[in-house]
């Protein structure tokens, strides 16, 4: 059984005892999504920590996008609620790379592959993606690769 899943279950129990409604609601949703993922497909399976982290990252991204949509629609109360859930999910994810770290990782991947020009984007992405797995969104990584290849 995944250690991360066990941690989420234990934290759910603690949040229920503490009567933390936002945390309880968020962790219940995560456990429901994990269960759905485990039984989807042709055969049921147990998710490992990497699968759970991917699911958490996907849910955190949904929260950020929903918060932005609510904020654009003038519903700041809903946006705040979505951001609160996103912050809870972020506690179970690896620390995100800051811009300087991402820039240096991409520069290193470009140097390692000897890539140049926008046509080499796939080659660089293939090299840098495993290094940033779970610590930066794909769109952010792609934008940095595109920027450095265009500049170089």
Strand fraction band? under 5%
Helix content: over 70%
What is the CATH topology classification name of the largest domain? Answer: Hypothetical Protein Yqey, Chain: A, domain1
Order of helix and strand elements from N to C terminus: HHHHHHH
CATH architecture field of the largest domain: Orthogonal Bundle
Features:
Arc Repressor Mutant, subunit A; 75% helix; Hypothetical Protein Yqey, Chain: A, domain1; 152 residues; 2 domains; mainly alpha
Short account of what is shown:
The protein is an all-alpha fold. The protein has seven helices and no strands.
Give the topology, please:
Elements: H1 3-17, H2 21-39, H3 49-72, H4 76-90, H5 99-113, H6 121-132, H7 138-151
Can you walk through the features of this model?
By secondary structure, the chain is mainly α. It has two domains: 3-90, Hypothetical Protein Yqey, Chain: A, domain1, CATH 1.10.1510.10; 99-151, Arc Repressor Mutant, subunit A, CATH 1.10.10. The chain has seven helices and no strands. α2 (21-39) packs across α4.
């Amino acid at each position: 059984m995944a250690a991360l899943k066990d941690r989420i279950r234990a934290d759910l129990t603690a949040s229920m005892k503490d009567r933390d409604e936002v945390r309880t609601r968020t962790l219940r949703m995560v456990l429901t999504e994990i269960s759905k993922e485990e039984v989807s497909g042709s055969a049921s399976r147990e998710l490992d920590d990497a699968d759970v982290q991917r699911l958490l990252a996907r849910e955190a991204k949904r929260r950020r996008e929903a918060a932005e949509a609510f904020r654009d629609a003038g519903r700041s109360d809903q946006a705040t609620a979505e951001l609160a859930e996103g912050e809870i999910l972020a506690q179970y994810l690896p620390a995100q790379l800051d811009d300087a770290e991402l820039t240096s990782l991409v520069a290193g991947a470009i140097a390692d592959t000897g890539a140049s020009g926008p046509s080499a984007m796939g080659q660089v992405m293939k090299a840098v993606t495993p290094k940033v797995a779970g610590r930066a969104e794909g769109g952010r990584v792609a934008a940095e690769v595109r920027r450095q290849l265009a500049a170089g």
